[in-house]
Amino acid sequence: MSNKSAGSCLCGKVKYEVEGNFESFFLCHCKFCQKDTGSAYAANLFSTTSTLNWLSGEDLVKTFNLPKTRHIKSFCSNCGSATPSIQNKGRFIVVPAGSLDVPVKIKPNAHLFVGSKANWEKGLEDLQVFEGLPV
User: What are phi and psi of 54, to 5 degrees?
Assistant: First the structure.
C-alpha cells in the first residue's frame, strides 16, 4: 500500500495529493522565506521520489521564481496560500508543511540559513501560551 498525503489551500479550491514519502523536512530562515511567508521561517517537506497529483484547482496555482536565485514559491492565486511546487527541473517536490490536511509523519531535519534568523525569534519558548485567541 502506498503512502499518500493530501493537502489544500485556505479557500479549498486547490487540492492535491502526494504519493510517496518525504525524505527531508527543513525550516528555512532565509530572508526570501521570511518575505514569502510573512513569518520567521518556511517549513517545507522535500521528496525526490514522490508524485504530485493535483485533484482540483491546478489552474489557480501560480509560481514565482525570484530572478537570479533558486527561490521558488507556488501559491493559490485565489487565496494566496502556499502550494506544492516541482523544482530543480523536476528533480524534487517541495510541499509547504502547513498546506497538508494530514499530520506530518516526520520531524524537521534541520534549521537552514540561521544567520538570517529574525531578531524576534529569540526567547519564544518563554512566551505565554493560549489554546486560542486570548480573552
Answer: -85, 125
Spatial distance between the Cα atoms of 43 and 132, rounded to a whole number of angstroms: 22
| SS3 state of residue 46 | strand
> Taking the CA atoms of the chain, what radius of gyration do you get in angstroms?
16
Tell me which residue of 24, 22, 20 sits closest to 2, measured CA to CA: 20
Kindly indicate whether the domain formed by 4-115 is annotated with CATH number 2.170.150.70.
Answer: yes
Tell me the pLDDT of the chain (135 aa) as tens digits. Answer: 469 999 999 999 999 999 999 999 999 999 999 999 999 999 999 999 999 999 999 999 999 989 898 889 999 999 999 999 998 877 899 999 999 999 999 999 999 999 999 999 888 888 999 999 988
pTM of the prediction?
Answer: 0.90
Domain range summary for the chain, segments of one domain joined by +: 4-115
Residue 75 neighbours by CB distance under 10 Å: 21
